[in-house]
Amino acid sequence: MVIISGIVCVYYNIIIAWTFYYVYSTMQSTLPWSRCDNSWNTPSCIGPGSILNETEQDKKNGTQSSVEFWERNVLNRSKGLEHFGSVRWPLFICLWLSWFAVFLCLCKGVKSSGKVVYVTATFPYLVLSILLIKCAMLPGAKEGLKWYLIPQWGKLASVKVWGDAALQIFYSVGMAWGSLITLASYNKFNNNVFRDAMIVPSVNCFTSVFAGLVIFSVLGFMSHTTGKPIEDVVTQGPGLIFIVYPEAVTKMPVSHFWAVMFFLMILTIGMDSQFGMFETMTSAFVDEYPKLLRKHKLAFTAFMCV
């Protein structure tokens, strides 16, 4: 549990670092991923400032401006694994900032994280509610919600669907990761654990379904604006957060505001997940060597962040 939490903490904070970079990017007068006249864009870029005519053939062979911003500016992706590339100093600073934020929130252990969670756990619901109302008004959102809510019963015969469902539940609830056990260990002795065991997965599943409403209303909107079927717009992993949604935001009125709100929400969700995993890691060491580490929890937390 400790090793897995430690490994995931490393890569999870990279996602938070990317989010910090996008929040910083929204402070420019024009959202940088919305245009094709930036230094990192290629002649095949599609978007405002593009040299292409945006014909059907151009759209087929070209690359969206949000994709080029992600791959050529944010990541500065090399040609392959055999080419290491160079250090992306802006991302290095964002990564340092993300670890510093984790340290500030956890420097006093569960006492400080418990207070921070009041903000980080409730803010995403506020933003999701606002985004749902806004996104549901976008053209094409209705079709996206239909695609999301109307079941395709034939898919239940696919083993892959059941595998993805199990992966989602195990990952999102954090079963066997140690974070639930670690945080529960700080409860009072007579705490109603059974009640908590009912609340945690219920809230988790509700949140997944609720967030899906927002995402698929945006995907419906993207399908409407690009002319592609919804299943072709759908993407998994970082692409959904850092390519599809930023591109959709550029087509909304007051796009800067919605971009800031969305990435602040991703930031708080990421920090929430990081708290549980990081506390699992530090608590395991402190509980194993209480005489050595319990009096120096602050210094040990800083050491683990470094």
TrEMBL record:
This is Transporter. Na(+) binds at S172, N204, D272, S273. It is found in: Membrane. Coiled coil: none annotated. Keywords: Disulfide bond, Glycoprotein, Membrane, Metal-binding, Sodium, Transmembrane, Transmembrane helix, Transport. One of its GO terms (molecular function) is amino acid:sodium symporter activity. Signal peptide: none annotated. Disulfide bonds join C36-C45. The chain crosses the membrane at residues 7-24, 87-107, 116-139, 165-186, 198-222, 254-271. GO terms for biological process: amino acid import across plasma membrane. The keyword Transport applies. SUPFAM superfamilies: SNF-like. Belongs to the sodium:neurotransmitter symporter (SNF) (TC 2.A.22) family.
